[in-house]
Design goal:
single chain, Lyase 2-enoyl-coa Hydratase, Chain  A, domain 2, six-stranded mixed β-sheet, 11 helices, isomerase activity, EC 4.2.1.17, lyase
Length: 260
C-alpha cells in the first residue's frame, strides 16, 4: 500500500502525493497531507515547500469518486470541511510553496495547486475543474481561488464549460507561472525553490504575507502594512548583510532567527 503522502525535510522541503495511479484525493490522503504540512511547518529549517505527485501520469486527478456514494447528503461533514481546513493550511504556510505539475491536475487536484504560491507545469500537463460534468461544483476553494488567480471571466469559462486546458493555455491565462519540458516540472520547481531559499528568510516570509494581503485589503491599508513590514525588516541583521554582500560583491550569508 502506498504511503499516500511522503515528506522530505530540509530548506527546500518536498511533499509528494503518492496514491497511484492518479494520486486522487481520498479522505485518508487529506488526513496524511495535514500531518505532512504540520511537519514541514514545525521544521525550522523549512524555507520553501515543493508539492508534487508521484509518477508522471498526474499531479492529482481530483477527488476519489468511489467515495461519493457514501458522501451523499453529508459531503461537508465527510469531505469538504476537512479539505477546506487542510487546503487553507497549505495556502497559509509561513513559507512559499510551489506546485510541480506533471500530467493531470483536475478538480480537487487543481484546487490543491491553487493553494500554492507558484505553479510550474510540464508541457504535457492538463488542468481543469470539470466538476459540473459530474453534477457537482468545485467545493474545496475552486470557485474562490481560481477567480483570484485568472480573473472572473476566465474562471467562469473554466468552471462552467468544464474544459481541460493544456500547459500553454494555462500559462497564457496565468493559471501557471512557468511551463517546463515534459517530465521536468519537478526539476524546474526545485530550481525555483533553491532560488527562494537563498533569499533572506525573514524578508521572504514577510513578502508572502504582504502579497497574500494585497487582494484582501484596500490599497491604503496594504501600503500601511508594507511600511510597517519594511521598518521591521530594516532592523534585522539580514538587511545589513544584504547591503554589505552587495557592496563586497559576495554572496550574502543570511541568518534566520527561527533557526536556533
Amino acid at each position: 500500500m502506498a504511503a499516500l503522502v511522503n515528506v522530505t525535510h530540509g530548506a527546500c522541503a518536498e511533499i509528494e502525493l503518492d496514491n497511484p495511479p492518479m494520486n486522487v484525493v481520498s479522505r485518508e490522503l487529506t488526513v496524511r497531507l495535514r500531518e505532512a504540512l504540520r511537519a514541514v511547518e514545525a521544521d525550522e529549517r523549512t524555507r520553501v515547500v515543493v508539492l508534487h505527485g508521484a509518477g508522471d501520469r498526474a499531479f492529482c486527478a481530483g477527488s476519489d469518486i468511489a467515495e461519493f456514494e457514501d458522501l451523499h447528503g453529508r459531503v461537508a461533514e465527510g469531505k469538504l470541511l476537512l479539505e477546506k481546513l487542510v487546503y487553507r493550511q497549505l495556502a497559509r504556510l509561513r513559507v512559499p510553496s510551489i506546485a510541480a505539475i506533471e500530467g493531470f491536475a483536475l478538480g480537487g487536484g487543481l484546487e490543491l495547486a491553487l493553494c500554492c504560491d507558484l505553479r510550474v507545469a510540464g508541457e504535457h500537463a492538463r488542468l481543469g475543474l470539470p466538476e459540473l460534468k459530474l453534477g457537482v461544483v468545485p467545493g474545496s476553494g475552486g470557485t474562490q481561488r481560481l477567480p483570484r488567480v485568472v480573473g472572473s471571466a476566465r474562471a467562469k469559462e473554466l468552471i462552467l464549460l468544464g474544459e481541460i486546458v493544456d500547459a500553454a493555455t494555462a500559462l497564457s491565462i496565468n493559471l501557471v507561472n512557468r511551463v517546463a519540458p515534459a517530465g521536468s516540472a519537478l526539476t524546474a520547481a526545485r530550481e525555483m525553490a533553491e532560488t527562494i531559499a537563498a533569499r533572506g528568510p525573514v524578508a521572504v516570509r514577510t513578502a508572502k504575507v504582504l502579497l497574500d494581503q494585497a487582494t484582501e485589503r484596500t490599497l491604503d491599508d496594504g501600503l500601511a502594512l508594507e511600511l510597517d513590514a519594511a521598518e521591521m525588516i530594516f532592523s534585522t541583521h539580514d538587511a545589513l548583510e544584504g547591503a554589505r554582500a552587495f557592496l563586497a560583491k559576495r554572496p550574502p550569508n543570511f541568518s534566520d532567527p527561527e533557526e536556533s
